[in-house]
Backbone:
């Protein structure tokens, strides 16, 4: 199983939970993207582009169920990245999509 790139990034920047600013806990893997990390928000540092091919989507909803930040919702029997700006880049959705309808790239 692939490790979430965001978790790896935070773990590198903050190797010890006791060093975490503003309540971010790398040790527990709990990350609030709206918190400040060394004067910059993680949102400003990390950005991801979701590419979704609706023709390949079979509407199974697995991406909706697995996404930790509710990027995906079901609309008209297909998944829809309604909150794409919230994407963490963890690629959980790409891992469960058996039809390769989703790709995620760093901006």
Residues:
């Amino acid at each position: 199983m692939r490790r979430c790139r965001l978790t790896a990034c935070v773990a590198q920047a903050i190797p010890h939970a006791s060093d975490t600013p503003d309540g971010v806990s790398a040790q527990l893997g709990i990350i609030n993207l709206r918190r400040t990390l060394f004067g910059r928000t993680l949102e400003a540092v990390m950005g991801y582009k979701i590419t979704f091919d609706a023709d390949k989507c079979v509407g199974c909803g697995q991406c909706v169920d697995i996404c930790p930040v509710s990027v995906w919702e079901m609309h008209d029997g297909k998944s829809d990245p309604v909150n794409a700006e919230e994407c963490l880049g963890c690629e959980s959705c790409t891992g469960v999509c058996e039809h390769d309808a989703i790709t995620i790239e760093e901006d």
Strands lie at 36-37, 40-41, 48-52, 72-75, 78-81, 102-106. Residues 47 and 107 are 5 Å apart (CA to CA).
